[in-house]
Amino acid sequence: MPVAIFDMDGVLYRGNVVMPHARETLARLRAARWQVFFATNNSTASRAEYVSRLTTLGLGGDEEHVVTSAYATAHYLERLDPKPNDVFVVGANGLRDEISAVGIGVRRAEDQPGAHPPPEAAADGRSPAAMREYLTHLDLPPLPDAVVVGLDLHLTYARLAEAQRALLGGARFVASNKDRAYPVEGRLLPGAGSIVKALEVASGRAALCIGKPEPFLFQEVIRRAGGGGPVIVVGDAPEYDIVAAHKVGAVGVLITTGLTDRAAAGAATGDAVPDHVIGSLDQLFALPQLVDVR
Ligand SMILES: [Mg+2]
Q1: Quick one: pLDDT at residue 116?
Q2: Which of 57, 81, 131, 259 could hold 121 in an S-S bridge, CB 3.0 to 4.6 Å?
Q3: Domains of the chain, with CATH numbers?
Q4: For the chain, how far is it from start to end, CA to CA, in angstroms?
Q5: Residue 241 annotated to the active site
Q6: DSSP 3-state assignment of 61?
Q7: In Å, what is the CA distance from 214 to each residue of 28, 52, 68?
Q8: Active site residue 9
């Protein structure tokens, strides 16, 4: 059966706003017996949370058809030999939950050193010295064996400091993704890549990336789909979605409703050059690969 893989943020929705034609497009593909999968670099939510969001937005889907960078990261860790058993996460609970779900120990956010600064240290603009004093007098736990980094909307300097300590001590360094930005309602926010880069600089090391543009998410989809049919990928970022599509031999369709406008689409080079560019989801059905889908 043919397979369509949709990126989510910037393609099917922005924040809680569903994109025009999203529901009809997915329904039409499913009616024509295409397998519809969802693949996101966003690591803040578990697959179960994505299914509930997709359901709320009227887009359908179940856990079997959702692949996230958090889920793929957990399965990457699980396959390592030796398997890590004490992971420090710079990221959200969705990422922690996916890693715990494969039986790997994960430190809780509230237990991390530096999570509870006294008011005089915590107050911005008062005394950087108080925060430094606090951080240098913490009771530090043994080093974790891996640091996993994803989008962290509650990032603190103390959390960066603990991750830096672990990385300088030799912990494995894994990034769920390196996205530059997070497109939400009406604006862009910094993506996980901005946090990964901070830790790469702080540690002098490079993180192994699991999310797009690496092929792991799409490989997992193709494995589940059983192979055979054509695979098309619809994404809003040439340097992530389209590069990853080409790594697995899929047709890369860029949509200009998210991170990339039409002018920026034309600037893509090499593997990031999309096979097709569309301005809205209904234009998908004009592409040669989909022209028979009624
Ligand atoms: Mg996107």
Answers
A1: 92
A2: 131
A3: 3-41+212-290 (3.40.50.1000), 80-209 (3.40.50.1000)
A4: 16
A5: no
A6: coil
A7: 29, 26, 13
A8: yes
DSSP letter at 20? Answer: T
Check pLDDT > 90 for residue 52.
Answer: yes
Query: Which one is catalytic: 9, 145, 179, 241?
Result: 9
CA of 259 to the centre of ligand 1 (A): 7
φ, ψ dihedrals at 235, nearest 5° = -145, 170
Q: Tell me the CA–centroid distance for residue 55 and ligand 1, in Å.
A: 19
Please give the helix or strand (H or E) that residue 47 lies within, else none.
helix 47-56
Distance 293 CA to ligand 1 centre (A): 24
The confidence score (pLDDT) of residue 261 equals: 87
pLDDT category, 29, cuts 50, 70, 90?
A: very high
Distance (angstroms) between ligand 1 centre and the Cα of 35 equals 20
Q: Provide the CA 221 distance to its chain's centre, in angstroms.
A: 15
Question: What pLDDT shows up at residue 200?
Answer: 98
Which of 7, 145, 236, 241 is the catalytic position? 7
- Ligand 1 ion: residues within 5 Å (CB): 7, 9-10, 236
What pLDDT, on the 0 to 100 scale, is given for residue 92?
95
The structure tokens 């994404």 sit at 235
Mean pLDDT of the 77-85 span: 94
* Residue entry with tokens 């890693």: 99
CA–CA distances in Å: residue 223 to residues 26, 62, 169: 21, 16, 36
Q: Ligand 1 centroid to 39 CA: how many Å?
A: 9
- For ligand 1, the distance from its centroid to the CA atom of residue 204, given in whole angstroms, is 29
Can you read off the two tokens belonging to residue 24? 């009809």
pLDDT tens digits for range 187-204: 889 999 999 999 999 999
